[in-house]
Amino acid sequence: MATKKVALACSVCGSRNYTITANPSRTKRLEVNKFCKHCGQYTLHQETK
């Protein structure tokens, strides 16, 4: 059985830079400060569905 993946999208430019494994016990969307290679700075990345 394959693991389900979700993407982390930059809140500034909207590019989906990172993928993580989905956690069904997480009720809210994950928000993490990550480096966006398109913006060139650390921005807030949010989990997409």
Automatic annotation (TrEMBL):
<dbReference type="GO" id="GO:0005840">
    <property type="term" value="C:ribosome"/>
</dbReference>
<keyword id="KW-0687">Ribonucleoprotein</keyword>
<dbReference type="GO" id="GO:1990904">
    <property type="term" value="C:ribonucleoprotein complex"/>
</dbReference>
<comment type="similarity">
    <text>Belongs to the bacterial ribosomal protein bL33 family.</text>
</comment>
<dbReference type="InterPro" id="IPR038584">
    <property type="entry name" value="Ribosomal_bL33_sf"/>
</dbReference>
<dbReference type="InterPro" id="IPR011332">
    <property type="entry name" value="Ribosomal_zn-bd"/>
</dbReference>
<dbReference type="GO" id="GO:0006412">
    <property type="term" value="P:translation"/>
</dbReference>
<dbReference type="InterPro" id="IPR001705">
    <property type="entry name" value="Ribosomal_bL33"/>
</dbReference>
<dbReference type="GO" id="GO:0003735">
    <property type="term" value="F:structural constituent of ribosome"/>
</dbReference>
<protein>
    <recommendedName>
        <fullName>Large ribosomal subunit protein bL33</fullName>
    </recommendedName>
</protein>
<dbReference type="Pfam" id="PF00471">
    <property type="entry name" value="Ribosomal_L33"/>
</dbReference>
<keyword id="KW-0689">Ribosomal protein</keyword>
<dbReference type="GO" id="GO:0005737">
    <property type="term" value="C:cytoplasm"/>
</dbReference>
